[in-house]
Amino acid sequence: AELKDKFQARTSEAAKLETELVKAQETVKAAEILIKQLDREHKRWNAQVSEIADELSTLPRRAQLSAAFITYLSAAPEDQRKASLDSWTKSAGLEKFDLRRFLCTESEQLIWKSEGLPSDDLSIENALVILQSKVCPFLIDPSSRATEWLKTHLKESRLEIINQQDTNFINALELAVRFGKTLIIQEMDGVEPVLYPLLRKDLVAQGPRYVVQIGDKTIDYNEEFCLFLSTRNPNPYIPPDAASIVTEVNFTITRSGLRGQLLALTIQHEKPDLEEQKTKLLQQEKEKKIQLAKLEESLLEVRDINLI
């Protein structure tokens, strides 16, 4: 009986050891698979780190080129823009610089086009200037297409639209400033003196709030207030003192710009499915990037569990 008990004990112990051995073998196998996966990811992550490091090293110079473009080239024709930007890029020690890729994504450009923005390079660059400039944009827009696009783009921003010649112009301006609206002033003929304090941000602190002088009145200034100026006049007179406090954005169509718009319209007419396909591919790319980020996070969680 004693031998039988010892035999059963040894048998149970052997079975337990065998179970633990199988479990250990499974753990080793899982670890080997994980190591291989991590090795591939490690190589890819190293490549990404290298790319990000390169981008970070040139980021100040690319940001400087973007700021220079917005400040000095927003009113220039396309040929001058290209020549100046190429020269600046070379002086900055960069092989190439793509303003559009640096300041926005393909998806954003597609959204702008769907909102009515012409698809030529000039219009896309001008849209970037309008949305990135810290100084009030003054749109020179003979066709009004850019202004219509801006209205659509800003429709969710408590938008109000007035003409400079409206009888309630001053009243509408005061209300927009007080309540933090987004205001587009159309049919500008130069820059009205009443706008100068707003354009210069001549704000005066009164306790916890700021006020600004509009005509004869002192108005509470809401920091959410945003102003855009627009004219259909291709050659508006902007005096030097006003030119320094607005960003002139010229949408006057040039030969190359017209060529680009006609090409886009031709493609849209002849191959209407191409734009839709491009939109779908960009959406898929966006979804895949999100999925990849989740998988990377999951892989790291699995690694942590296995290490424990």
UniProtKB/TrEMBL annotation:
Keywords: Coiled coil. It comes from Micrurus lemniscatus lemniscatus. This is Dynein heavy chain ATP-binding dynein motor region domain-containing protein. One of its GO terms (biological process) is microtubule-based movement. The keyword Coiled coil applies. GO terms for molecular function: dynein intermediate chain binding; dynein light intermediate chain binding. Residues 14-55 form a coiled coil. Residues 112-301 form the Dynein heavy chain ATP-binding dynein motor region domain. One of its GO terms (cellular component) is dynein complex. InterPro entries: AAA_9 (IPR035706), DHC (IPR026983), P-loop_NTPase (IPR027417). It comes from the Eukaryota.
